[in-house]
Design brief:
It contains no helices and 34 strands. Helix content is 0%, strand content 50%. Strands 3-2-1-34 form a four-stranded antiparallel beta sheet, with no helix packed on it. A hairpin with a 7-residue loop joins β27 and β28. The chain is mainly β.
């Protein structure tokens, strides 16, 4: 399907912008749906993207291209206007996502196998730098998680096996410079605050989180919320929560408590816990509406058919929804008037208005997982 037709075809040229475009990952078929939020519709499908389980997507700064990081190491550049693959490379054996630099010129993939990060030219997908995540006297390589972009074409990420946070400066991609910071045990995912100042890594190996002040990295990593589950019986963890869809709202961070039926509320700056909100099950994504007035939460199996909404003034649940089976992801419209929700086992995407939390539309999709809108191109950490 051509959205911007070629002159050679003698078809009328249809011009359009890209600010209301996005993609829905159809993991079962290795496809993307190109969607448009203004009229809540699917525009086209793009096939041939490989293994899209746990796929993530970033966008070029002109919002024309989606860069898809597949689990099989595939990195695919998709033209949203023509719904075609512009370029594709397979850069690793097992990858877990990526990020794009402040100036939009450098893509970085984070890899499990071989562990490390790789940097690519966003125009050509040419390899610019390979930064292995080696550690210890034997030179082992760690899985990399929690990658985020920072000002100055720098990237911050965590090493699950090495208990480290690293910051790599790719302002000169031919000569990357990496700083290393010891962290807590087994960082599994992370977020960076919207101003790019604080990097917070969730820890699988201990109660608490690791925080690095990127404006004062010389102070090193600080543990926040130490022992938040201490003294209570830990629950089995059915799915690791995701932190990258961070929720920073009303001067507080809302974080999923690993293995617990709670959302933790932390005051920015002091990093003190100010509340913990009981929720239906183990939270996976805890995502703030763009205005910060509400936080929406989905859950791990067996309660993954539910979504709950937290009011950030009252810090309490104000609504509970059941959009479908296996809710894997949510994505807010750029200004937050609607939210798109993927229901994997019902093969559909459900769209809610956020003012009344009313269902407005459904779109068919094959086992949908991640939903990504082009507005992410202008946000740090997305």
């Amino acid at each position: 399907m051509l959205l911007l037709s070629a002159c050679a075809s003698q078809q009328p040229v249809v011009l359009r912008g890209t600010g209301d475009l996005g993609v829905v990952v159809e993991r079962a078929t290795g496809q993307l749906q190109v969607i448009e939020t203004t009229h809540r519709r699917a525009l086209a499908q793009v096939s041939g993207l490989g293994d899209l389980s746990h796929a993530s997507v970033v966008f070029s700064r002109d919002s024309r291209y989606a860069y898809v990081f597949g689990r099989d190491g595939g990195l695919t550049k998709v033209d949203l206007l023509t719904a075609t693959i512009a370029n594709r490379v397979v850069q690793a054996g097992n990858a877990i996502g990526g990020a794009i630099s402040q100036d939009g010129r450098i893509l970085v993939a984070q890899n499990y196998e071989p562990g490390g990060i790789k940097a690519f030219d966003a125009g050509t997908l040419e390899l610019l730098a390979d930064v292995p995540a080696t550690y210890g006297p034997d030179g082992k390589r760690s899985k990399v998680v929690g990658l985020a972009d920072l000002p100055g074409n720098r990237f911050v990420y965590s090493l699950f096996d090495a208990n480290e946070i690293r910051v790599t400066d790719l302002s000169d991609p031919g000569h990357p410079k990496t700083e290393r910071y010891p962290s807590g045990k087994q960082p599994y995912d992370a977020l960076v605050t919207p101003d790019g100042r604080y990097y917070i890594a969730g820890l699988f190996g201990e109660d608490g989180l690791s925080m690095l002040d990127l404006w004062h990295p010389e102070l090193g990593v600080r543990t926040i919320l130490p022992g938040y589950g201490r003294g209570e019986q830990a629950l089995p963890v059915y799915k690791m929560p995701h932190l990258r869809g961070w929720a920073v709202a009303a001067g507080r961070a809302y974080l999923p408590a690993i293995g617990r039926h709670e959302v933790l509320v932390v005051e920015l700056g002091s990093w003190k816990e100010v509340a913990r909100i009981p929720v239906k099950s183990q939270p996976v994504f805890v995502m703030a509406r763009p205005d910060g007035r509400e936080v929406w939460v989905n859950f791990a199996f067996p309660d993954n058919g539910w979504v709950q909404v937290i009011d950030t003034i009252q810090n309490s649940i104000v609504d509970t929804l059941q959009p479908g089976r296996a809710i894997l992801h949510m994505e807010f419209a750029p200004k937050g008037e609607e939210v798109w929700v993927s229901a994997r086992d019902d093969n559909k995407v459900v769209i809610y208005g956020t003012a009344k939390r009313d269902k407005r539309a459904e779109l068919p999709a094959a086992s949908p997982s991640g939903i990504f809108f082009t507005s992410r191109a202008f946000r740090t950490g997305f």
